[in-house]
């Protein structure tokens, strides 16, 4: 019984996880979800959700305002693409020239697999006549 | 001894793949990662309109608010986004902008857009450089987003038809600014 109680308390620890960083209360999580897909223009490798720069803060405010106006996620993203170009999207769109960004790794892996397969492919056994001939020659003095 | 034809073909194919990858890599290395695209200038789009409050030293001449569309279609316009915290870039170009404005003020309109700044700091900056071209105040930086601005300082040149023809990121020097002006002046 005591073992069970101990186990119970140990298992309790599973819940003791850090909560995901919650957004400031003035903006809804939806705002941050959209901002996470947009680049912060003045940062290096940060999304508009993470950065505290003035532009990123303003972008989050614009997203919140547009959501309030009933705009959809795609409309909001289009708003920023219209101004900054596709560069502003964190994930390159899966069409046009940036489709290659998604396809090339798969192609590369396939090519690698093909190369490995070709390299390790079991060699075809030699034709029996040839083997016999070789053995015969070996036996010759 | 002769190689089977398939083998030669395959080695050529591999060479081609390696060369193509090398070429792609070389091309990528030649690209400037700091080169930032401007949708506005590339497509010569009409300048996005805005109405912003005029900073106090300029209200007598320009009124309380400045609406860009009231000034489009006449002279070319130079829009300069700046902030007092943008050191040293904004501090380097402020005298250049002021001097060029004084030379071209009858032919070109200059407008300073103070972005994401505090009014007191902005007024101190204006006084320090004795800026005489109109200055508007955009503490949120909303107009910057409409122009696809990355960071201060950035300068946009609008032609006489109200289209954005130039986006210059970073400090601007006299020669570059005058070259841009020649593009939009008759």
DSSP strand tally of chain A:
0
Record field, number of beta strands of chain B? 7
What's the helix count of chain B? 7
Helix content of chain B: 40-55%
Provide the helix percentage of chain A.
Answer: 55-70%
* Average of per-residue pLDDT values of chain B: 91
Q: What is the CATH architecture annotation of the largest domain in chain B?
A: 3-Layer(aba) Sandwich
Question: Class of the largest domain in chain A in CATH?
Answer: Mainly Alpha
Whole-number radius of gyration of chain B? 24 Å
Assign the CATH superfamily of the largest domain in chain A. Cytochrome C biogenesis protein
Structural class of chain A: mainly alpha
Could you describe the 3D structure shown?
The complex is a heterodimer of chains A (141) and B (186). With 141 residues, chain A is mainly alpha-helical. Chain A has helices at 2-12, 29-35, 54-68, 73-84, 99-120, 128-139. Chain A has two domains: 21-91, Helicase, Ruva Protein, domain 3; 93-141. Chain A has six helices and no strands. Chain B has 186 residues and is of the alpha/beta class. Chain B has two domains: 1-31; 39-184, Glutaredoxin (3-Layer(aba) Sandwich), CATH 3.40.30. Helices cover 41% and strands 18% of the residues of chain B. In chain B, the strands form two sheets. In chain B, strands 5-4-3-6-7 form a five-stranded mixed beta sheet. In chain B, β6 (154-158) and β7 (164-169) form a beta hairpin. The chains are: A mainly alpha (141), B alpha/beta (186). Chain A binds chain B through residues 41-42, 54-55, 58-59, 61-62, 80, 82-85, 87, 111, and chain B through 17, 36-40, 115-116, 140-142, 144-151.
């Amino acid at each position: 019984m005591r073992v069970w109680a101990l186990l119970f308390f140990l298992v309790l620890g599973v819940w003791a996880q850090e909560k995901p960083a919650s957004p400031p209360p003035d903006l809804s999580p939806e705002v941050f979800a959209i901002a996470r897909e947009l680049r912060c223009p003045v940062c290096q490798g940060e999304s508009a959700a993470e950065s505290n720069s003035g532009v990123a803060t303003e972008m989050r405010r614009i997203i919140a305002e547009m959501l309030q106006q009933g705009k959809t996620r795609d409309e909001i993203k289009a708003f920023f693409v219209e101004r900054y170009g596709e560069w502003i999207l964190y994930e390159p769109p899966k069409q046009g020239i940036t489709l290659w960004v998604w396809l090339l790794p798969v192609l590369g892996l396939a090519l690698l697999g093909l190369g490995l397969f070709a390299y390790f492919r079991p060699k075809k056994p030699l034709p029996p006549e040839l083997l016999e001939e070789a053995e015969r020659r070996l036996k010759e003095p | 001894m002769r190689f089977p034809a398939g083998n030669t073909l395959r080695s050529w194919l591999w060479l081609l793949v390696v060369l193509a990858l090398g070429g792609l890599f070389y091309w990528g290395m030649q690209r400037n990662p700091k080169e930032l695209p401007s949708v506005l200038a590339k497509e010569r789009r009409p300048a996005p309109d805005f109405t912003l409050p005029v900073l106090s030293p300029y209200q007598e001449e320009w009124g309380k608010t400045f609406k860009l569309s009231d000034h489009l279609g006449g002279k070319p316009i130079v829009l300069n986004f700046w902030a007092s915290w943008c050191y040293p870039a904004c501090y380097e170009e402020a005298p250049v902008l002021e001097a060029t404005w004084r030379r071209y003020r009858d032919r070109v309109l200059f407008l300073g857009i103070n972005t994401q700044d505090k009014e007191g700091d902005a007024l101190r900056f204006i006084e320090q450089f004795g800026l005489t071209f109109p200055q508007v105040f955009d503490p949120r930086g909303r107009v910057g987003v409409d122009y696809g601005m990355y960071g201060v300082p950035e300068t946009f040149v609008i032609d006489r038809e109200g289209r954005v023809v130039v986006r210059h990121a970073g400090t601007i020097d006299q020669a570059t600014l005058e070259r841009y002006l020649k593009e939009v002046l008759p």
